[in-house]
Amino acid sequence: MAETRSRSNRHAGLEAGGILDRAIALARDEGADALTMRRLAAELGVATTSIYWHVGNREQLLTAMVQRHGERLAETPITGDTARERVLAVARLIWEGALADREITRLASSHGLSSLHAQHLELAMARELQEAGVVGESARDALRAITACVGGFIVAALLDDALPTDHRRTSVLAHLEDPGLDPTTRSALATSSHLPSLFDTTLQAVVDSLVPADLSANAYL
Amino acid sequence: MAETRSRSNRHAGLEAGGILDRAIALARDEGADALTMRRLAAELGVATTSIYWHVGNREQLLTAMVQRHGERLAETPITGDTARERVLAVARLIWEGALADREITRLASSHGLSSLHAQHLELAMARELQEAGVVGESARDALRAITACVGGFIVAALLDDALPTDHRRTSVLAHLEDPGLDPTTRSALATSSHLPSLFDTTLQAVVDSLVPADLSANAYL
DNA sequence: ACGAAGTCTGTGACGCTGTCCAAGAGAGCA
DNA sequence: TGCTCTCTTGGACAGCGTCACAGACTTCGT
Asked: Which of B105, B116, B129, B182 to probe the A interface (max A CBs under 10 A)?
């Protein structure tokens, strides 16, 4: 009965996995800023140093959190008739997964861990690219280009709901005087785009430019 | 002789502009992390509180820095035969300007000030879009999509040279096992793409999908 | 010429952060 | 019982942004 949970509950039953889950929950529920070592320790009813013992310092904590969270993102099945469509579908999965838990994404993005966060989905995209006939350096470059654009849209979406109103891009651009600019455009710039649909059309174009059209499904092999 | 420099050198000849320039230089020369209030004050030979007096708190300092730096970015003339080409040229200007002073870009990007940083160039892009016949909400959406992709590439480039080797994306992806993946692709994933050329081809595709081809230069008007 | 008003500067503190040393408590084994 | 290994803790350290307060200097009104 005391043997079952491995050998790690010597004192307080604290283990790395539980710390990570609690950290993820804390960031998701109360924002990325709420995730401090002390706050997380308090949440666990433990001294700060215990986190260091089990997980390591803050950077290691964030890395492990993002990795763990990223594994869950890759569980959704990929749908689509052609490989080309499935490439786009994976892009959409990255996008949706990132926005579903924005605070984790924010944490990952501000610490250069986005690649780690989406690594499994990127691998899935590499597989779909291969099935579409894109391999080797072309696959590497296609993957890079697509994920760069996806990442850009994610950052844009994160900024849209976290920025103080006075330097959102809508206000920034609208407050810039330009006599030559069409008044229709000018007033449109003060409103915000519908990012999900913009994401779809833009990434469609990017994927189409990088992945050849379906040559009855056997261009390579 | 003492009247010439306006009326602002009451005590130490300190003024907002000088503080901002020094802050920009400090960030550029010694990295974004070196820019602390105390460090900047020491650099200026002044107490920290003086910065608060002239510029404001850290967020206001960063905002003013980014704004000032962004104005200089917009001084480069825009070249290109068709309006469509000039849209791409502006995108390239944003990209190159951002990478020329990476530390400032890093500062802007990590504080949600990227729109502010590139605001003048974005306005220039709006003008070129208008000349290409894209106005109103279409212009707003095109601008948004293009800048999102540009931003994504910029973030990707910043990460490439600032990340510890062990969780760069090349290592991250290469260390992921997948039996079904083509060995050529697998080894290519361990190398890094040439971002500048990838940027060009990708943004070419994005712009082409959003901006109609040149209808002998007078589609609108 | 003298004092009041306004403008700028410096001192020093507050609460917060990540980090870690050194000491202790508990379990298992001899 | 005592030794060892694993885990937990308290408390400190240096650094950060921020600001209340008091002092110094200039300018102006009288």
From this structure: B182
The total of other beta-carbon atoms located within 10 Å of residue A74's CB is 18
Q: Domains of chain A by range and CATH?
A: 16-56 (1.10.10.60), 72-210 (1.10.357)
CA distance B83 to B86: 5
Q: How far apart are CA B45 and CA B22, in angstroms?
A: 11
Helix axes B136-162, B102-110, angle to 10 degrees: 120
Protein residue closest to D8, using CA and C1':
A50
Model pLDDT for residues A4-27, shown as the tens digit of each residue: 333 444 565 789 999 999 999 999
CA distances from B106 to A82, A141, B57, B66, B113 (A): 39, 24, 19, 10, 10
Burial classification of residue B34, based on how many CB atoms lie within 10 Å of its CB (0-12 exposed, 13-18 middle, 19 or more buried): middle
List, in sequence order, every beta strand (DSSP E) within B103-172. Answer: none
Instruction: Tell me whether residues B127 and A180 touch, CB distance under 8 A.
Output: yes
**A110-166 pLDDT, tens digit each:** 999 999 999 999 999 999 999 999 999 999 999 999 999 999 999 999 998 876 666
**Mean pLDDT over all residues of chain A?**
89
ipTM of this predicted complex? 0.91
Q: Which of the residue ranges A125-129, A215-219, B149-153, B188-192 would you say has the lowest mean pLDDT? A: A215-219
Mean predicted lDDT score pLDDT of chain B: 89
Nearest-10 crossing angle of helices B58-73, B16-30? 80
Task: Tell me how far apart the alpha carbons of residues A151 and A182 are, in angstroms, rounded to a whole number.
Answer: 31
Distance from CA(B34) to C1'(C8), angstroms, rounded: 26
Q: Which residues of A touch B65 (CB under 8 A)?
A: none
pLDDT of residue A11: 61
- Inform me whether the pLDDT recorded for A3 exceeds 80: no
Kindly identify which residue of chain A lies nearest to residue B178, measuring between CA atoms.
Answer: A123
Nearest 5°: CA angle at B200, between B155 and B213? 125
Give the gap in angstroms from C-alpha A126 to the nearest C-alpha of chain B. 8
